[in-house]
């Protein structure tokens, strides 16, 4: 079940070099370099709208880079044929922000979905795998519920069980903590870290929940304005002397990222109203 | 004036762009049809929700259209003393035009809108993106079975519509209007040709099925992933399908029955 350490591939499972990407004429990434090694939990942080989700889509091959390269497991994602891309995706699991569960299937059938699609396993074996995956996220008892009957945190855990169904090597988490109550948040943090270590996974966590993310990450990247502005271990980030990183990590309302949206001066605006 | 030209140009370009995307989409779906042959149960499920669940409205409408047609046809024919040809009139109107067209319009309202809304909502809730990342191609797993189900269902529904329409006309004609049952059927048998009338009607409904299914799944797949986007796409499916079916029907009639 753990990712096999093939000798042919380097330690870096995801390697992004000089990535540029723009959307709607606005450059989202401009020369981003980022590496995720085998077995690590790597956090990618930054304020909303910096394209963190877009980065995951680039890694998953749903979008193509305008320039630079996105290598996953030694393969250039943007240059793959459809067949090769789908083969590569079977080695990745993605946890979407909304959970993206199929609303007309029960939890059990949601987790069984990728198994039924990709394997010829008999139902008895699928049942065993599904129950194991649900047990790993603590929701074996909720298997007959529909997604609408779950809380947000539970839905994300079911979605995680589904992402794990095919025993991927890489799991990409899109804002796993957003909008969670403290208990669900704690449960998710524990599950992410423990699964990574127990199953020998490699995890990428995209988030702007600083404390939660840094407490489970081995390394973190902070992205702003299309660039990586700081990277390293959580300790190194906390000690960073960049005022921007300081503002971000300590949640200060004003700083290099201004509180006010750019505008003419208040006095001018008021005078005009007369 | 320049502004008007600009707007016309922009909307023309936008429509052409949509048409191009829709065509490429259709080609991709057709190329992925092989998977459906290996997993027919996906199609069976969609045949149920697209075809069987549309039956009620088709059965009721077919009956009533036939009955009304009998009344109206009779009042016109009786002036010429030709009321015994009621069967021919009803059968020709239904097989050539009303069956395929009315079925397609009802289908767009009942099944097409449901398809668009379902696919659009799956897109809005990231279910399609999630499927893609599970290495399952939504164009093959979700779109293809629905398109093929529409293609198969619509001709069958149209046939049912026609049969019930003729049945309704027979009941009204013989019991209410005093048309002779024997001449109702025998004149129909003598004057309705299988190749010219029934087969052409069938060809029409197959084409309408393709068009209705294509418009419905494309609008869902292409919609803005918001609640307003899904609602607009659903409306567009019904409106565009209706207009395209009516336009296409005119062209087909002009080509088929000269």
Outline the structure in words.
The complex is a heterodimer of chains A (274) and B (258). By secondary structure, chain A is an alpha/beta fold. In chain A, 36% of the residues lie in helices and 23% in strands. Residues 1-9 of chain A have low confidence and may be disordered. Chain B is elongated, with a radius of gyration of 21 Å. Chain B has helices at residues 2-31, 34-38, 40-51, 55-79, 86-124, 127-133, 138-176, 181-191, 194-222, 227-256. With 258 residues, chain B is mainly α. Classes of the chains: A alpha/beta (274), B mainly alpha (258). The A-B interface holds A 60, 62, 86-87, 89-90, 92-94, 96-98, 100-103, 113-114, 117-118, 159, 162-163, 166 and B 125-127, 129-130, 132-137, 141. Chain B: The complex is composed of two ATP-binding proteins (MlaF), two transmembrane proteins (MlaE), two cytoplasmic solute-binding proteins (MlaB) and six periplasmic solute-binding proteins (MlaD).
Annotation keywords:
heterodimer, A: 274 residues, alpha/beta, six-stranded mixed beta sheet, 36% helix, 23% strand, B: 258 residues, mainly alpha, Permease_MalE (chain B)
Strand content of chain A: 15-25%
Largest interface: A-B, 24 and 12 residues
Summarize model confidence as the mean pLDDT of chain A.
Answer: 84
Give start-end ranges of low-pLDDT stretches of chain A. Answer: 1-9
Count of DSSP helices of chain A? Answer: 10
User: If you compute it from the alpha carbons, what radius of gyration of chain B comes out, rounded to the nearest whole angstrom?
Assistant: 21 Å
For the record, give the distance between the C-alpha atoms at the N and C termini of chain B, rounded to a whole number: 43 Å
Q: Spans of chain B with pLDDT under 50 lasting ≥5 residues? A: none
Family (chain B): Belongs to the MlaE permease family.
Membrane topology (chain B): Multi-pass membrane protein
Main location (chain B): membrane
Organism (chain B): Spiribacter onubensis
């Amino acid at each position: 079940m753990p990712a096999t350490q093939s000798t042919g591939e380097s330690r870096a499972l995801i390697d992004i070099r000089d990535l540029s990407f723009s959307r709607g004429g606005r450059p989202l990434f401009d020369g981003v370099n980022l590496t995720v090694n085998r077995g690590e939990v790597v956090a990618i942080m930054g304020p909303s709208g910096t394209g963190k989700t877009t980065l995951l889509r680039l890694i998953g091959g749903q979008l193509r880079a305008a320039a630079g390269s996105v290598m996953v497991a030694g393969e250039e994602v943007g240059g793959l044929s459809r067949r090769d891309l789908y083969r590569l995706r079977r080695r990745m699991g993605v946890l979407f922000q909304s959970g993206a569960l199929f609303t007309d299937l029960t939890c059990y059938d949601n987790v069984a979905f990728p198994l039924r699609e990709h394997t010829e396993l008999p139902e008895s074996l699928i049942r065993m795998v599904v129950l194991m995956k649900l047990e790993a996220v603590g929701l074996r008892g909720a298997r007959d519920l529909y997604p609408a009957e779950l809380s947000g945190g539970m839905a994300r855990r079911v979605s995680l069980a589904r992402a794990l169904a095919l025993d991927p090597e890489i799991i990409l988490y899109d804002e796993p903590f957003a909008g969670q109550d403290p208990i669900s948040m704690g449960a998710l943090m524990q599950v992410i870290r423990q699964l990574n270590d127990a199953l020998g996974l490699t995890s990428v966590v995209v988030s702007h929940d600083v404390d939660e993310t840094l407490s489970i990450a081995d390394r973190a990247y902070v992205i702003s304005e299309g660039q990586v502005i700081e990277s390293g271990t959580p300790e190194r980030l906390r000690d960073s002397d960049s005022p921007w990183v300081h503002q971000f990590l300590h949640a200060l309302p004003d700083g290099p990222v201004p509180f006010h949206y750019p505008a003419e001066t208040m006095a001018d605006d008021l005078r005009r109203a007369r | 004036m320049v502004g008007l030209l600009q707007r016309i140009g922009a909307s023309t370009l936008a429509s052409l762009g949509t048409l191009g995307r829709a065509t490429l989409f259709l080609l991709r779906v057709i190329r992925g049809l092989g998977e459906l042959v290996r997993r027919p149960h996906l199609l069976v499920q969609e045949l149920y929700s697209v075809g069987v669940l549309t039956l009620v409205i088709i059965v009721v409408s077919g009956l009533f259209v036939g009955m009304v047609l009998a009344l109206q046809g009779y009042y016109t024919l009786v002036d010429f003393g030709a009321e015994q040809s009621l069967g021919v009139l009803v059968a020709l109107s239904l097989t050539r035009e009303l069956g395929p067209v009315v079925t397609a319009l009802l289908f767009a309202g009942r099944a097409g809108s449901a398809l668009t809304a379902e696919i659009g909502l799956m897109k809005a809730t990231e279910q399609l993106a999630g499927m893609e990342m599970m290495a399952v191609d939504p164009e093959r797993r979700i779109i293809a079975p629905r398109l093929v189900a529409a293609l198969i269902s619509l001709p069958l529904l149209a046939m049912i519509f026609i049969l019930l329409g003729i049945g309704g006309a027979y009941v009204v004609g013989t019991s209410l209007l005093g048309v002779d049952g024997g001449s109702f059927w025998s004149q129909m048998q003598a004057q309705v040709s299988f190749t010219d009338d029934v087969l052409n009607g069938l060809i029409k409904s197959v084409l309408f099925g393709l068009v209705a299914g294509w418009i419905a799944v494309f609008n869902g797949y292409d919609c803005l992933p918001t609640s307003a986007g899904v609602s607009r796409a659903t409306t567009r499916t019904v409106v565009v399908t209706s207009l395209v079916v009516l336009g296409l029907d005119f062209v087909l009639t002009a080509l088929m029955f000269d």
